[in-house]
Design a protein that fits this description.
Largest sheet: 8 strands, mixed
Radius of gyration: 18 Å
Order of helices and strands: EHEEEEHEEEEEHEHEEEEHEEE
Mean pLDDT: 96
Keywords: Aromatic hydrocarbons catabolism, Dioxygenase, Iron, Metal-binding, Oxidoreductase
Distance between the termini: 15 Å
Protein name: VOC family protein
CATH architecture: Roll
CATH superfamily: 2,3-Dihydroxybiphenyl 1,2-Dioxygenase, domain 1
Shape: globular
Pfam families: Glyoxalase
Low-confidence stretches: none
CATH class: Alpha Beta
Cofactor: Fe(2+)
Structural class: alpha+beta
Family: Belongs to the extradiol ring-cleavage dioxygenase family.
């Protein structure tokens, strides 16, 4: 997964708030295929490879069900190593009678579903980057119907045993209140616009990846932030390849007028829609 390692800046651990931790754990183990890395009374870290946490689910006291038309998580996206792995997941969903959406985005093929709290999930595989079509600095993306039979055929000899080794957090897609200041904020973190012409959406990436960050105003321009005591995104991590690039991002963030705080030795910022981000080295 070359776009999710040095020298690129990329998204890593996504941390969610849920209403019922046990219900969520059963879903994420049995349907999505995560394994438990660490389990605490009110928080569980989930992994694909047994070493690195990709997702955290947490049940804070007094947590309330989801609210619509707010900023926050649209979906987090798990990138599988191969198209055959995607075929195995698609077969697993069909055999488990899981309702899903799907989209062929030219650069990737994706499946979509929600967890029990309504948190959006994408599971996808990338097409080879040699097949991506570019116009100047922008990559061509669309949302077309997938060829499900072709994907299933590709995965016919691949057994589904949960998320395969090599699965990474491919990207995160956020509801935001507006796009201009938000684009400026993620530019400051080191992400460039990759696809500018989606209605009400922007896709931004590092190192010519089609996107590590998706942004949309589909919950409404001016949408308010999700209240602290409501399920959804708690925070996500952005990993920098070097300390120099992390420090440059911190400087950029301060220069555009955003606040940055240090929590337990980690720099934490909020985008203009109050989505919370940890800036880390790995």
């Amino acid at each position: 997964m070359k776009y999710h390692n040095k020298p690129h800046t990329f998204v890593d651990l996504v941390e969610l708030k849920v209403v019922d931790l046990q219900r969520s754990l059963e879903f994420y183990e049995n349907i999505i295929g995560f394994k438990v890395l660490e389990q605490h009374a009110d928080k569980i870290l989930l992994t694909a490879d047994g070493k690195n946490a990709l997702l955290s689910i947490e049940q804070p006291s007094g947590i309330m069900p989801t609210q619509q038309k707010t900023t926050g998580l649209y979906h987090f996206a798990l990138l599988l190593p191969t198209r055959a792995d995607l075929g195995a997941v698609l077969r697993h969903f069909a055999e488990s009678n899981i309702r899903i959406g799907a989209g062929d985005h030219l650069v990737s093929e994706a499946l979509y579903l929600n967890d029990p709290d309504g948190n959006g999930i994408e599971i996808y595989s990338d097409r080879p980057d040699s097949d991506w079509k570019w116009e100047n600095e922008y990559v061509e993306m669309a949302t077309l119907q997938i060829n499900a039979q072709s994907i299933l055929a590709e995965g016919a000899n691949t057994e589904w045993n949960g998320l395969p080794q090599g699965t990474v957090m491919g990207h995160i897609h956020l509801h935001v209140s507006e796009l201009d200041a938000t684009k400026k904020f993620y530019n400051a973190l080191g992400f460039d616009v990759m696809t500018p012409n989606y209605p009400g959406a922007l896709f931004m990436g590092s190192g010519k990846y089609h996107h590590h960050i998706g942004l949309n105003t589909w919950a409404g321009v001016g949408a308010p932030p999700t209240p602290e005591n409501v399920v959804g995104l708690k925070t996500f991590s952005v990993v920098f390849p070097t300390n120099e690039e992390l420090q440059a991002a911190i400087t950029n963030i301060i220069e555009i007028g955003s606040d940055i705080v240090e929590e337990n030795g980690v720099f934490v910022v909020q985008d203009p829609s109050q989505n919370k981000i940890k800036l880390i080295l790995k």
